[in-house]
UniProtKB/TrEMBL annotation:
Species assigned in the record: Dokdonella immobilis
Signal sequence bounds: none
Listed name of the protein: Iron-regulated ABC transporter permease protein SufD
GO biological process: iron-sulfur cluster assembly
Family per similarity comment: Belongs to the iron-sulfur cluster assembly SufBD family.
Annotated ranges, domain SUF system FeS cluster assembly SufBD N-terminal: 23-165
All copies of domain SUF system FeS cluster assembly SufBD core, residue ranges: 178-404
Length: 443
């Protein structure tokens, strides 16, 4: 499907030189042939049944951005309140040292994929030389074929990294529609800990397609607190994949906030492969206009006494559409697992739509598990109460909706960062009273 979409991208792959040696050339060649054979997933693909690629497939995106190294970027896009931290900035998939801050941190390596491919590509083999067996992974294949840059973060065993590390992925406006790739790798050593903010922003203008793929490995007893903030303009189309593997006693706490982009797909795949490993996730998407957001979360328990605690919220207004697929699989032998999944959603318009699919598969013994999903509307009694306190109906709607969304970020301990996200969400959330997006005229 969508060969017109893939044609210029695959042509660029065939003509580009590959750093990294013969093994990486082989990996990319294999992924390229799979893409040429299978294309992008079509309407019969179960994983993509609610997110048609037809419109995207009819567009032509130019591969990469030759001017990324010198392109002007609004400095305000790079800032997060309360985050004065080491920063790696990537513009249209290319590292920008002039916009980054890379202080020396004990026990931490802050590098880029392009550096590693030039200097020590074999260190990346365990991350890049991996199969993408089914059509649902078509964008992962495309990333493997074309990605030449991205963050590579390694934390040494036993290191406790105090400052936040800030990753900024900027989709900068260009004179043509661009498609860019980014590949990120995070490895936290045994008994080490890291706090990371992954920030997706952009400039309005020509449409762009950002295809990013993050791979995370937490060694025994490691901890990663990861905050993902997606606040791109509506000229952005984003495909993101986050994979994480947790060894024994490792802990991943992931917060995900999806507020921007016209069309967005985010696949999260977490494997609890070590005994007593734990995954905690809080997430939200807030949509308006004709935005489309599709989040697919797959968690696999493959070791004993593992646990996951997932709470996800969705809000859709006007003609927007949200999809949440949350699947938990407790494999045979993963005895003693504790798996909890809750997905609640708000529809703020008769023309908005949210599809939710909680899935729970248990193949082990002595398992505690629960899952549930709801789709509803704002409580009219709560609206009435707030209006009786002097708020307009629009203000009351926004405050109630914001309170509903705060489950994703209310536990952030950095007060300035939490308030920044609060303001961002309030700006994104609807204060409209009719389907045109306008406040009613005063009598």
């Amino acid at each position: 499907m969508a060969t017109g979409f893939l044609e210029p991208l695959l042509a660029a792959a065939s003509s580009s030189a590959v750093a990294g040696g013969d093994w990486l050339a082989g990996v990319r060649e294999r992924a390229l042939r799979q893409l040429e054979r299978d294309g992008l997933p079509g309407p019969r693909s179960e994983a993509w049944k609610y997110s048609s690629l037809r419109a995207l497939g009819q567009r032509r995106f130019e591969p990469g951005d030759a001017a990324a190294a010198t392109r002007n970027v609004d400095a305000g896009l790079l800032e997060l309140a309360g985050v004065d931290a080491p920063r790696l900035v990537f513009v249209n998939g290319s590292f920008r040292a002039d916009l980054s801050r890379l202080p020396s941190l004990p026990g931490v390596q802050l590098r880029t994929l392009s550096q590693e491919l030039q200097e020590d590509p074999d260190r990346l083999r365990g991350f890049l030389d991996r199969p993408h067996a089914d059509a649902a992974d078509a964008f992962a294949r495309l990333n493997t074929v074309l990605a030449a840059d991205g963050p590579v973060i390694r934390v040494a065993a036993g290191s406790v990294v105090e400052p936040l590390v800030h990753l900024v992925n900027v989709g900068a406006s260009a004179s043509v529609d661009l498609a860019w790739q980014l590949r990120g790798i995070v490895e936290v050593g045994e008994g080490a800990s890291l706090r990371l903010v992954e920030h997706h922003v952009g400039e309005a203008g020509h449409e762009h397609l950002g295809n990013s793929f993050s791979q995370i490995v937490l060694r025994a007893g490691a901890r990663l607190d990861l905050l993902q903030v997606q606040d791109s303009p509506e000229s952005a189309n984003l495909v993101r994949r986050t994979e994480a593997s947790l060894e024994s006693d490792a802990h991943l706490e992931l917060r995900s906030i999806e507020a921007g982009a016209r069309w967005m797909r985010h696949d999260l795949a977490v494997e609890l492969s070590g005994d007593r490993s734990r995954f905690v996730s809080r997430g939200v998407f807030a949509l308006h206009g004709r935005q489309h957001a599709d989040t697919r979360l797959d968690v696999r328990h493959t070791a004993r006494d593992t646990s996951c605690d997932i709470v996800w919220r969705g809000v859709a207004d006007q003609r927007s559409r949200g999809i949440f697929h949350g699947a938990i699989v407790v494999a045979a032998g993963a005895d003693g697992a504790d798996a909890q999944l809750s997905n609640k959603n708000l529809l703020l318009s008769d023309q908005a739509e949210i599809n939710t699919q909680p899935v729970l598969e248990i193949h082990a013994d002595e398992v505690k598990a629960a899952h549930g999903a709801t789709v509803g509307q704002l409580d009219e009694r709560a609206l009435f109460y707030l209006r009786s306190r002097g708020l307009s109906r629009a203000e009351a709607r926004s405050l109630l909706t914001l309170a509903f969304c705060r489950v994703a970020f209310d536990s952030i301990t950095n007060a300035a960062l939490r308030e920044h996200i609060d303001a961002m969400m309030l700006e994104r959330l609807p204060i409209r009273e009719d389907e045109t997006g306008q406040e009613p005229a005063s009598p």
